[in-house]
UniProtKB/TrEMBL annotation, chains A, B:
<keyword id="KW-0378">Hydrolase</keyword>
<protein>
    <submittedName>
        <fullName>Peptidase M20</fullName>
    </submittedName>
</protein>
<feature type="domain" description="Peptidase M20 dimerisation">
    <location>
        <begin position="194"/>
        <end position="353"/>
    </location>
</feature>
<keyword id="KW-0479">Metal-binding</keyword>
<dbReference type="Pfam" id="PF01546">
    <property type="entry name" value="Peptidase_M20"/>
</dbReference>
<keyword id="KW-0645">Protease</keyword>
<dbReference type="InterPro" id="IPR051458">
    <property type="entry name" value="Cyt/Met_Dipeptidase"/>
</dbReference>
<dbReference type="GO" id="GO:0046872">
    <property type="term" value="F:metal ion binding"/>
</dbReference>
<dbReference type="GO" id="GO:0008233">
    <property type="term" value="F:peptidase activity"/>
</dbReference>
<dbReference type="InterPro" id="IPR002933">
    <property type="entry name" value="Peptidase_M20"/>
</dbReference>
<dbReference type="InterPro" id="IPR011650">
    <property type="entry name" value="Peptidase_M20_dimer"/>
</dbReference>
<dbReference type="Pfam" id="PF07687">
    <property type="entry name" value="M20_dimer"/>
</dbReference>
<dbReference type="GO" id="GO:0006508">
    <property type="term" value="P:proteolysis"/>
</dbReference>
Length: 456, 456
């Protein structure tokens, strides 16, 4: 291992140049005019992977190609196999005028590289490739087999990934998936994200009179659909911030003392957090800290309201309809299907006979968890500690990463989320940056991970 | 009186021709390009009034001119004085393609004259002028003095009327104002509208986080302003349809048995009414009929809701703010100022500390009532009965007519609302029409009114 870490230490300048080359591609998957830039970026990756000694190929899909790169296999030996997932496509750079330096001309200021995709996700997946390079170039034997899968449609919903996984199931089946595409709370605070929330989306439309009515002539004798909607919504959350849908909390895996202790180690006070959000006072489910509420507890959020007249001044109508858009965040082990069913039947009960209700279910995603005491999680924590020289924290992430559920479904593998993005890295915003000290720490972490993971 | 009624009977054909001439003017006050048509229409009115023997002048205002026409006064005698109000301006005719015949080419089909302004308000104010003509032309002495005030800005908010009333207060002060500009429930059902609802408009904005937040990362730890708004709104109306603002009903004048009996005489069942509105079931304040609810009881209506994402699909945010537009309809003797104060203080009590509330008050108008047992109301009922040969009904109107409050304020006079517009007259819509039998009945009603009103 000493040769590996020495190789990494002494080649940082070149690695940063490699990252510059990688970031220069405007590989914006949301914009059709960049299709050729995505292809060129994928081809650059193939060349780079071959150059560092990986057996590499470009897999065509219905969308952008996927790069598959494998470390040299040891003939006749069945070793642990890990997949490293990343993506070479990036978010659109707009608005351009808010960038201090052009998004596709990577620029180093202080300890950061600025450029679209530097953090999300080029810098993070290149860190893993660099660790593999160090093993191969120093002739250090890896105690496991690695397969890199780097796709080009993550920012537009990974549409081709499921078919690709199905097609290459035998080759890709592995003992665990490793992804560096999430956050790290601070430069000196390495973290393993071990759980994600799921999601269930709804749209509810309350239909009242067949057209907007004059509120002077008819108002008072007919229910107001916006009021009916408000009264239904109001009943869905109690004063303790608990969601009132019958059975909603039945399957929620309780937070262990160990997990709560870990979450309490995250930096920042609730007062600072309220100031950061710009609210007079925080609000959430009683009995949980703000971090627990936003990372590890289920939620019910109104995302949008629409009814009647929305312009200047007033219009004296009883509106014909009112609509709400809702998403719930679900946590392990809630089942979206069960929640959707219970919600629909509760809504039917709450809806008064004076209006007609229409419910549309939108997208859904399962929540995700890897036990923080599993051997994989513990191995990841050891690798983080070796790389950073600090005790890592265990985190849950409040958002959803649907591909993680695909890996579970198609490859039967758990995913270790070892993010390197700082909270101020501006992923998806102008002036995206990646911290170059974390680039190096990430390479080290990856190198250690392949030592730790195969240990049982 | 026999000479008067005979004159009216035998001159119908010419009166209809006069109405055609009047309707031909495209006197659309909302459209600046019709300014000259408004002036031409006012000048035609002056000429017409002079021709039938009224002392007439055109009063300039900051907007369109007002026609003032007076019956010949009896020297040295102080007689009861009544003002007849009307307006010569009309609503815009658009959309043109929905008209069966051009809006400003009056056309008779069946017993109706079709044309913009035929019902609202040219036909109705010409009926009153025609009655005065009959008295003058037959040399029949009027037992009172009449002043016709016909303005040209009613459809755009009567902006010049208040200044005009103040300037001509001495001349216009009168014992009662008569307006035919409201509805009649059916051809065979003459009606006196004796009360109007007032109004108070509000906009409430609930401010949450300083920007839309990612519901995965932050959701659960911060209040959702759309939910906070729903929970505030939900508390404002109870399950019996009663508004919960403290003191809201304190000043409401109770409906007398006489009034409720009158309202029960209006045609149509509640089942038919629900079908007409297109709702599965009517809803309103418990203990009152639908007609009472919409005509004589105060209401609280949500006119519009706005928050967060309103486009296709879903956007997983905690919105930064949520807004509601509200109008309340107020009834005699509720005081808008008192209600506004009570509502604001109740809202402050309902608003949770986790969001910030902003309340904007909009326009307001006082409710209006003339006692249905007053001598003026009783005189109007006798005149209606004489003209129609049927027992008239007493009605309240759920909307507001702000000028009525101006007459009360500047002229200290009550207003008798003796509308001739049928429910299907399409006022403000394409194919506006006026029933020519009601035109004649209206003339007779006016002729009788001047006999009945001076009786104490």
């Amino acid at each position: 291992m000493q040769k590996v870490t020495e190789y990494l230490r002494s080649n940082q300048a070149r690695f940063i140049e490699d990252l510059c080359d990688y970031v220069r591609f405007p590989s914006v998957s949301a914009q059709p005019e960049h299709r050729k830039d995505l292809k060129a970026c994928a081809e650059w990756l193939v060349k780079h992977c071959k150059g560092i000694g990986l057996e590499t190929r470009l897999c065509t899909t219905e969308g952008n190609p996927i790069v598959v790169a494998k470390t040299p296999r040891k003939k006749g030996v069945r070793r642990p196999h890990y997949m490293v997932y990343g993506h070479y496509d990036v978010q659109p750079p707009e608005p351009f005028d808010l960038w201090k330096t052009p998004p596709f001309e990577p620029t180093i200021r202080g300890s950061s590289m600025f450029g679209r995709g530097a953090s999300d996700n080029k810098g993070q997946n290149l860190a893993h490739l660099t660790a593999a390079e160090a093993y191969i170039k120093t002739g250090t034997e890896l105690p496991c087999d690695l397969t890199f899968v780097i796709e080009g449609e993550e920012e537009v919903g990974s549409k081709s990934l499921a078919a690709f996984l199905v097609k290459n199931q035998a080759e890709l089946t592995c003992d665990a998936v490793v992804i560096s595409d999430t956050g790290i709370p601070a430069k000196q605070l390495p973290a393993l994200t071990y759980a994600l929330r799921g999601i269930a989306a709804f749209e509810i439309i309350i239909h009242g009179p067949s057209r907007d009515l004059h509120s002077g002539i008819f108002g008072g004798s007919v229910d107001n659909p916006a009021m009916a909607l408000a009264q239904i919504l109001a009943k869905l959350r109690d004063k303790n911030g608990r969601i009132t849908i019958p059975g909603f909390y039945d399957d929620v895996a309780p937070l262990s003392t160990y997990e709560r202790k870990q979450m309490a180690r995250l930096p920042g006070s609730e007062k600072e957090f309220a100031r950061f959000l710009g609210v007079p006072k925080l609000f959430g489910e009683k009995g949980f800290t703000a971090n627990e509420q936003r990372m590890a507890r289920p939620t019910f959020e109104i995302n949008g309201l629409t009814s009647g007249y929305q312009g200047e001044g007033s219009k004296t109508i009883v509106p014909s309809w009112a609509r709400v858009k809702i998403t719930m965040r679900l946590v392990p082990n809630q089942n979206p299907g069960k929640i959707i069913k219970s919600f629909r039947s509760y809504l039917t009960k709450l809806c008064p006979p004076t209006v007609r209700m229409e419910i549309k279910s939108g997208h859904g995603a399962e929540p995700y968890i890897v036990s923080p005491t599993s051997s994989e999680a513990q191995a990841a924590l050891r690798a983080l500690k070796s790389a950073f020289g600090k005790e890592p924290v265990l985190m849950r992430e409040g958002g959803s990463i649907p591909i993680v559920n695909q890996f579970k479904k198609y490859l039967r593998a758990d995913t270790l989320l070892l993010g390197l993005a700082l909270p101020d890295d501006n992923a998806h915003s102008p002036n995206e940056k990646f911290d170059l000290e974390l680039f190096e720490k990430g390479q080290l972490m990856s190198a250690h991970l392949w030592q730790e993971l195969p240990k049982k």
